[in-house]
Design a protein that fits this description.
By secondary structure, this protein is mainly α. The chain has helices spanning 22-33, 37-67, 74-100, 109-148, 155-186. Mean pLDDT is 88; it is low at 1-9.
Amino acid sequence: MTQASSIPTQNEEPRAIRTPIDGIIVAVANRVGGSKAKEVERFLKFASVGTLGAMIDLGTSLILLKLIFDPRDTLQYLTAATISFVAAVMSNFFWNRYWTYPDSRSRSIQRQLIQFAIVSVSGWAGRTIWLRTTKSLFEKAVTRMAAYSSLQIDEVTTALIGGMIAILIGIFVVMIWNFFVNRYWTYNDID
């Protein structure tokens, strides 16, 4: 008895991961996408993957900043943010390759991973500049809001909340960058 190969032949569609939200995504894409329904479907899947990546990124950052790193120290804060970013990027690459763009397999996984990594490192660099620039502004805003509402928040908590707000906004901006650059460079071998 022979086992069926999991490698698609030239006439066969590559296998994609199926998820419980596929039907909803396809229905929404068909309803609002018109002639671009497939591209809308890809964007919705990419955004879903990005949402998962954001949860990984924020969750990992929060755990690292609460348990290991001091959120008041800029180098430690940026180190935690970088570790969490890498964890999210690894998840995002897997899900984008096998769920968002399953028909993009004309290139080797190594080549796509390198291209995805280049895009991600560019996003990470921009995000790091953003975090370094805005974290203290968000900390000041948290301090003002706490004082206005007569809350007592310590320095560590203020740094943690301000830092997490900066990361959340940075995630959104980098997601837009990553979608367009990956779609038209890393995964440009699909219609």
